[in-house]
Design goal:
The structure holds two protein chains of two kinds. Chain A is an all-beta fold. In chain A, strands 2, 5, 6, 9, 10 and 11 form a six-stranded mixed beta sheet that branches. Chain A has a three-stranded antiparallel beta sheet with strand order 3-8-7, with no helix packed on it. Chain A has a two-stranded antiparallel ribbon with strand order 1-4. Chain A is globular, with a radius of gyration of 13 Å. Chain A starts with a strand and ends with a strand. In chain B, the strands form two sheets. In chain B, strands 2, 4, 5, 6, 9, 10 and 11 form a seven-stranded mixed beta sheet that branches. Chain B is mainly beta. Chain B contains no helices and eleven strands. Helix content of chain B is about 0%, strand content about 50%. Classes of the chains: A mainly beta, B mainly beta. Chains A and B meet through strand 5, strand 6 and strand 10 of A and strand 4, strand 5 and strand 10 of B.
Chain lengths: ~110, ~120
């Protein structure tokens, strides 16, 4: 079965603290994973994708095939990081996304 | 920067009425999608559209739903006879070529409220 799991609905951290948003997946083929972010009242925006191994706004994510995980990390959270974060798996063929349920990150001053 | 545009931003309709949600994808994109998000739940795939036909649809996308790309620019989702459970945020997305490594771009969503 193709599935993405984000176990935390809400994660609250203090400004300057490290952040880790968890994502686990189930996919029979070779996975391609993305993180999308949705700031308040805005559209879903790509944050980063597994294939490019980039760091955007200080966030990184490493694909761990052994643990079937793609956790999102940032060493020092900023207040502007407060948003909804979605982990997504892209399928072969039609390239549709399978989304996790999302984690709301609240960064407290 | 080009964007996917959706109209209206909010639609209220009576149960049993037909609604059409409109999307203008990014102009050189080839793949088009509709997703929906019921309040408090995850974003779910509805349908994908490529080369002027549906390439995949989910179980949610039953006979009440249809999609069209009538004029080469707009991409519409029609719900023939709305039900209360159709109330949700509907997102349109488009993507260009590039296989699985290319991301989709999302519209800002249409909030559909069925009363």
């Amino acid at each position: 079965a193709q599935r993405v799991t984000q176990p935390e609905k809400l994660l609250s951290v203090f400004k300057g603290a490290p952040v880790e948003l968890k994502c686990n997946y189930s996919y029979s083929g070779s996975p391609e994973l993305f993180w999308y972010v949705q700031y308040s009242r805005q559209r879903l925006q790509l944050l980063l994708r597994h294939i490019s191994r980039e760091s955007i706004k200080g966030f990184t994510a490493d694909l761990n095939k052994g643990e079937t995980s793609f956790h999102l990390k940032k060493p020092f959270a900023q207040e502007e990081d407060s948003a909804m974060y979605y982990c997504a798996l892209i399928t072969s063929g039609t390239y549709k996304y399978i989304f996790g349920t999302g984690t709301r990150l609240k960064v407290l001053a | 920067e080009p964007e996917v545009t959706q109209t209206p931003s909010h639609q209220v309709t009576q149960m049993g009425q037909e609604v059409i949600l409109r999307c203008v994808p990014i102009s050189n994109h080839l793949y088009f999608y509709w997703y929906r998000q019921i309040l408090g739940q995850k974003v779910e795939f509805l349908v994908s559209f490529y080369n002027n036909e549906i390439s995949e649809k989910s179980e949610i996308f039953d006979d009440q739903f249809s999609v069209e790309r009538p004029d080469g620019s707009n991409f519409t989702l029609k719900i023939r006879s709305t039900k209360l459970e159709d109330s949700a945020m509907y997102f349109c997305a488009s993507r260009g070529i590039g296989g699985r490594y290319t991301e989709a771009f999302f519209g800002q969503g249409t909030r559909l409220t069925v009363v």
